[in-house]
Amino acid sequence: MRKLFLTFLAVCSLGAVQAQGNFEVGASVGIPIADAADISDFMIGIDAYYMFKQEDAFINLGPTVGFRNFFVDFGDLDNGMFLPVGAAGRLTLFGTLRGGADVGYAIGLSDYLDGGFYFRPIIGIDILDTLELNASWENIWDEATWGSIQVGAKLEF
After folding, report:
1. Which residues form the signal peptide (predicted)?
2. Closest-CA residue to 18 (of 45, 57, 53, 70)
3. HSE-up (13 A, CA, CB side) for residue 11
4. What is the pLDDT of residue 12?
5. pTM to 2 decimals?
């Protein structure tokens, strides 16, 4: 797991040297679905992106890392926490509409979670040049499926 994280950092560092891009930070709140709905009522998430993009580009790509906290209300289990690490791809239409997905691996941070494949399709609209409002669906396939439907906002620097 440590090797995966170090590889991710190296790729991000090399990519930053090769291309101009923007740093983006987002936050979201969601309602758990799938297996997570049985033990959780609410989730929050934060994400950081470095998108390699050019002005008015149709497709933008970049690495992403985040944090997910599913508030568990079942027995004496701790909250379900994940660290998603992966790649993000976005298509931009009409200058304001965005759609795409984040794909990667979510590392389980809670004692009872191993982690698993992570997939998050997302749609958004740019309100200002630096603010995006978005909606997404997300699944993390651990031994159980940790899913959520989310709304959020993202700032671009």
Report:
1. 1-19
2. 53
3. 17
4. 55
5. 0.85
